[in-house]
Amino acid sequence: MALLKSKGGVMVFSVNVDKLTRMKPSEKESYESVADSIIDMSEDESVVISVVGEGTMAFKLADALYTKGGKVIFIDADLRDDIFIAKYRVGRDLKGVANYLTEELDYNDIICLTNKDNFKVIFTGMSDYTAHEEIEIEKIKILFKKLKEDFDWIVVLTDDSGKIASMCDETIVMLKQSDYSEMSSEVKVKQLDEAGCYVLGVVVNE
Asked: 160-187 pLDDT, tens per residue?
């Protein structure tokens, strides 16, 4: 990840999608197959899809949707764990979802560019906001509404509470094989259903 410039006091970062995904041909084909299934099940022209589960898998799904055409933005809205910031060492000046919830920022101020023209990223960000605070539902809804005007696919990594996932059009659960069991997956899907999420299914990475 590289810092490109400062825009009105807000740092703008560039993300190399290919370095974050690093998929073998067989893995890439599997994610594209999942993307095809999601496209077939989705009726709207612009869709906000929540991914509950493993962050890297969610990012790879966003990349797979990008390969199918259209504009894609990936949002790390799992405020419990800033795994992308920790893993890729992007620095504490990065603005993201947490900053959007606590500061007077336009959504364009938290979008990171990538090496792909129609693929953008929003990370969790760094602020005094914690996942224990009440999610500002209206601000999230406004963010999604604005993004749907500019993007075909808004892929949102969320926690399993269903608070943010319930504001999305669709939800998919993505798990590593080591984290999967039929019983626990059924419980997770039921909890998301009860939270008001429209769950498409569960994807397990073998």
From this structure: 889 999 999 999 999 888 878 888 889 9
100-127: burial string, b at 16+ Cβ within 10 Å, e else = bbeeeeebebbbbbbeeeebbbbbbbbe
| 33-89 tens-digit pLDDT | 999 999 999 888 899 999 998 888 999 999 999 999 989 999 999 877 665 655 555
**Pairwise CA distance, residues 131 & 111, whole Å:** 21
101: Cβ contacts below 8 Å, ≥ 6 apart:
127, 129, 135, 136, 139, 140
Q: Do the Cβ atoms of 167 and 87 come closer than 8 Å? A: no
**Is residue 111 a contact partner of residue 7, using CB atoms and an 8 Å limit?**
no
Distance from C-alpha of 113 to C-alpha of 38, rounded to nearest angstrom: 25
Site of tokens 């996932």: 165
Give the C-alpha separation, 133 to 188, whole Å.
22
User: Residue 29, CB half-sphere, CA atoms under 13 Å: how many?
Assistant: 3
Instruction: Report yes or no: 149 and 175 within 8 Å, Cβ to Cβ.
Output: no
Pairing of strands 72-76, 47-53: unpaired
Whether residue 169 contacts residue 49, with contact meaning beta carbons closer than 8 Å, is answered with yes
92 Cβ partners below 8 Å, 6+ apart? 126
